[in-house]
Amino acid sequence: VKEHPAFVDLPDAYSVLFPALQRLDPPDESRTTCHACPQAQIPGGPEDPDRRYLHDVRCCTYQPRLPNYLAGRALRRGGVGADRIRARIRREPEGVGVFGIHGTRAQAERYSAGTFGRDRELTCPFWVPGPLSCSIWRDRNSVCRTWHCRTTDGARSLAYWDTVRDALQVLELRLAAWLVRQVPEQDRPADGAGVEDWERYYISTTDRLLAATPAELGQIDMAEADGLALMLRIYQSMLHAPVPEQVVPIIAEIEDRGDNLALGGYSRLDMVTVPRSYMALYGLLLSGLPWREALEKAHEAGASFDAATIDLLWRRGLLSWVPGEEPREVIVYRELAAEHGLQLDDGARGAPPIAG
Ligand code: SF4
Ligand code: SF4
Q: Ligand 2: does its nearest atom lie under 6 Å from the Cβ of 354?
């Protein structure tokens, strides 16, 4: 797989169980600039409707489900990450178990699209202050690896990343369960066990995974692998598609911003601000005019949009394919997905799923 932060230090076993991982060519997602987070409030700054997240904890207002072998790998790595995991185990026995570590029921009840990014009580136990924020970055889970608050190709990127997340999540669940079965029952920590017992156990699952042979791993059921690989091919084929001659305009959300309008297409986290005169162009596109003709007519009426605006609106999900007129390979793959009963994702963005 092309070098991308989402795939750094994935366990080798993943490629054995899901070879499609090796053929991925992910978008770079250069717009997700965590070192200068576009969603973070500016301390002391004016209220900004596009900056809603707490300035320090941001999207780490989340309780990841860390499978046993990743918890063990972070513990073995040592340093702040290991300290944070020990502190999490010590603080609250709920959510610490043989499959791994996850949040508590109370945290799950508190978590929603409205509290994500904004509720300090939901801060991840592995979060640390500073620009990098994650103390277990090399061992973070599927959700944390694939979450991008803004993408380079709107809903197409999101659908791609959500499918990578689903594939990694299946791997995490299957491997964690397989590793539990590798440890004799009497050697597994009981509820309420001490930090040392949990640490020893989690590290033992990491060691067992490292020692697993391809033949052993081959016994793990990966019934979803073919479907997930096909979905990844579909979404890969849609990435960076050029703007077609004819498009359908979409506005999922609209906000009044004085002389301008903020339009939401694929995500509330990536609104596009346009002059109000965009609504004239919107009407022309809605009437079915190809976008070049619509631009000419809009120019005659005094509006100054150009091909770059159209490309921007396309990438942000404010323009879409006319139904049934997607590129040929997308239609073929979609038909294949329907044949296999696969549910395709429209890439709409909310908060990441808590069960990750
Ligand atoms: S992924 Fe999180 S930290 Fe990174 S830019 Fe987006 S909200 Fe900010
Ligand atoms: S594991 Fe790391 S990336 Fe994930 S929520 Fe926690 S601090 Fe953020």
A: no
CA-proximal residue: ligand 2, atom 5 (nearest):
60
Give distance in angstroms: CA of 40 to centre of ligand 1: 8
Ligand showing the shortest atom-to-Cα distance for residue 101:
2
Ligand 1 pocket, residue 205 CB under 6 Å: no
CA 331 to centroid of chain Cα atoms: 25
* Dist CA 115 CA 113 (whole Å): 6
CA of 304 to the centre of ligand 2 (A): 43
* pLDDT tens digits for range 179-233: 999 999 999 999 889 999 999 999 999 999 999 999 999 999 999 999 999 999 9
**Residue 82 banded pLDDT, cuts 50, 70, 90:** very high
What is d(CA 321, CA 164) in angstroms, rounded to the nearest whole number?
A: 24
**Does any ligand 1 atom lie closer than 6 A to the CB of residue 61?**
no
The predicted-structure confidence for 105-140, as pLDDT tens digits, reads as follows 999 999 999 999 999 999 999 999 987 799 999 999
pLDDT value of residue 349: 56
Which of 67, 62, 138, 135 lies closest to 97, judged by CA?
A: 67
Q: What are phi and psi of 321, to 5 degrees?
A: -65, 145
Q: Is the CB of 313 under 6 A from ligand 1?
A: no
Report pTM: 0.93
End-to-end CA distance of the chain: 22
Q: Is 65 in the pocket of ligand 1 (CB under 6 A)?
A: no
pLDDT at residue 348 in the model: 55
Give 36 Cα–ligand 1 centroid separation in angstroms.
8
Angle between helices 225-238 and 154-182 (to 10 degrees): 160
Distance 148 CA to ligand 1 centre (A): 7
Q: How many CA atoms lie within 13 A of 267 on its CB side?
A: 25
Q: In the predicted model, is pLDDT for residue 356 greater than 50?
A: no
Please give the full DSSP string across 65-105, using - where no structure is assigned.
-EEHHHHHHHHHH-HHHHHHHHHHHHH-STTEETTEE---H
